[in-house]
Write a structure and sequence with these properties.
By secondary structure, this protein is mainly alpha-helical. It is built from 9 helices and no strands.
Length: 254
């Protein structure tokens, strides 16, 4: 099986740019998350910080670039899949970039909330997919990197960049889940993500793993499915106390 780096079609200099930006972004998110203990302070500064249009546009730009980078990273596996598997399997290959795409779209819908029942349902579905898949694949990628390292794989700077960027995916999803109205679409997101798991491991189009994990594929599959359930439960719990008005008036278009 190809190893984890045969996915990348980017040279080393380009490899550094977007992950470095996302690394700085993760640091910002971690710092802000540590401040959450002060959310009870007057003025609800936590909400003002993460719902500020400048912050939303910044995160949108970072996630948009990260999504593009992710699809490029999967370039070799997409080509390999196109040559050896039916074309309908291609959308199931780039798991993390698709999760990032969902979250990028969810941020855009925070900036410009749609109107009408149809728009609201589409928004809620995108938000549910964004949170479930971002938490899941953010944790999954980090777990696979360290699992490979535990069995002898060398963890290099590219791995650490991937760790930082994927942790950022999970953290940002949990931070913004409290601002989303996604609960009624969580069952749909759960079914889609489980279907993705089934296709990945029944058809062999799961993300390429470190060679050291080739003999642990059954355990990886069970872990992946379990993580889908855990991520959905986390999304449900985080949004359990959300306010009735998920989109403050200052975010709406005037």
């Amino acid at each position: 099986m190809p190893n984890k780096y045969t996915n990348s079609t980017i040279n080393d200099n380009a490899n550094l740019i977007v992950p470095a930006v996302r690394f700085l972004y993760v640091y910002m998110l971690l710092t802000a998350a540590n401040w959450e203990v002060s959310r009870s302070m007057p003025g609800n500064w936590f909400e003002r910080l993460f719902l500020h249009r400048g912050m939303l546009w910044l995160l949108f730009a970072v996630n948009f670039l990260g999504t593009i980078y992710g699809y490029i990273w999967y370039g070799n596996q997409l080509v390999y899949t196109a040559e050896h598997y039916p074309a309908w399997l291609l959308p199931f290959v780039p798991d993390s970039p698709t999760a990032s795409l969902f979250f990028t779209a969810a941020l855009l819908l925070l900036l410009y909330p749609p109107k009408g029942l149809k728009g609201t349902l589409i928004r809620e579905l995108i938000e549910a997919l964004a949170v479930v898949t971002s938490v899941k694949y953010g944790i999954w990628a980090v777990a696979m990197i360290f699992a490979g390292g535990f069995q002898g794989d060398v963890i290099g700077w590219k791995d650490w960049m991937l760790v930082a960027s994927h942790l950022g995916m999970a953290i940002e999803a949990l931070i913004y889940a409290r601002f989303f109205t996604l609960r009624r679409m969580l069952p749909v997101a759960l079914l889609w993500t489980l279907a993705n798991d089934m296709v990945d491991y029944s058809q062999g189009v799961f993300p390429w793993l470190p060679n050291e994990l080739d003999d642990d594929l059954n355990e990886v599959q069970y872990f992946t499915i379990g993580l889908t359930l855990v991520s959905t439960a986390a999304a449900w719990l985080v949004t359990g106390k959300q306010r009735k008005h998920a989109y403050p008036a200052r975010l709406r278009r005037r």
